[in-house]
Amino acid sequence: MRRYRPTAIPGSQITPESSYFQRRDILRMTAMGGLALAAPSLAFGTEALEYKSGGYDPKEELTPEADVTSYNNFYEFGTGKGDPAAKSGDFTPRPWSIKVDGLVGKPAEFDLDALTALGLEERIYRMRCVEAWSMVIPWIGFPLASLLDRVEPLGSAKYVAFETVVRPEEMPGQRGVFQPLNWPYVEGLRLDEARHPLTILAMGLYGKTLPNQNGAPVRLVTPWKYGFKGIKSIVRITLTEDQPASTWNRLAPNEYGFYANVNPAVDHPRWSQAMENRIGGGGFFGSNERPTLPFNGYGDEVASLYDGMDLKVNY
Ligand code: MTE
């Protein structure tokens, strides 16, 4: 399989799909002509935005983009893996803003321009779903710490709560008789986890603006935690003193902990977490099985956040 290298096509432009292909073709031609090229960029309107590499690359084969954008969990659009891609066409992620409030000195509302101004980077992260499959995804986003710095958390703030949009008119999973979850979808992190350099808010993947099914226009990415922590289509971030609720923990606390750190030594009550199936390449649940790593392989970076904690109790 071909490996996507952002630097191989230095001008790979990240714009809405139609102009993206056009622009990429132009840049390929330019590259062949040997001319100087613009830095990679992402667009949320007509304007292209530059981004740089964030310096993270596990040097593993990327999961094909077609799998990243078609095999999803996003219950607001249905519970099937294909539902988010098939049923999110009516969702309108622009215009958008995130309200940041709670225990902060400067509560604020950030629109997409204000978010992208926090500094976009590409981060290639290993991702591990609680359902024992995994992917490697080239995200484009900015460190959550940059946003938190702007609102000046108070000394009393200990946690960060996140909330997804509620729009039954655009999200078929939020209407009808069967409601699989309580809305809004909510998640939380301890403040030190939220400020950790690995934690980003993603606004793009594979050099393009984030598709609806992956959480447009902005979603959380914490690569050392199970995927359900990665709350999508965020409209509100609140700094709190007490540990906030998280959707799956509230639904089944014995199955899904608040911390949700990837831990091969703690099985889910209904299945083992020792192994995982890497999506793509060898096909779904085929020959692509591999051992799951503590903290999903990011232990050197994050293990110290949990010094002195029993990770079997705090799963
Ligand atoms: N966010 C919201 N709002 N609703 C959801 O159902 N599913 C979570 C998480 N974020 C979910 C969500 C789960 S279970 C996973 S594994 C990841 O999104 C999947 O992200 P992906 O589809 O981009 O791979």
Strand and helix map with partners:
Elements: E1 13-14, H1 17-33, E2 41-43, E3 48-50, E4 52-56, H2 65-68, H3 83-87, E5 97-102, E6 108-111, H4 112-116, E7 121-128, E8 133-143, H5 144-151, E9 159-164, E10 186-190, H6 191-195, E11 200-205, E12 208-209, E13 219-221, E14 234-240, H7 247-251, E15 275-278, E16 289-291, H8 299-302
The protein binds ligand MTE.
Ligand MTE binds next to loops.
Summarize the structure.
The protein has 8 helices and 16 strands. The protein has 315 residues and is of the alpha+beta class.
Q: What small molecules are bound in this structure? A: ligand MTE
Give the number of domains.
1
The CATH homologous superfamily name equals: Oxidoreductase, molybdopterin-binding domain
Structural class: alpha+beta
Supply Rg: 19 Å
What is the number of helices? 8
Q: How many E strands?
A: 16
Instruction: Sum up the overall morphology in one term.
Output: globular
Architecture (CATH level 2) name: Alpha-Beta Complex
> In percent, how helical is the residue content?
10-25%
**What is the helix/strand order?**
EHEEEHHEEHEEHEEHEEEEHEEH
Strand content: 15-25%
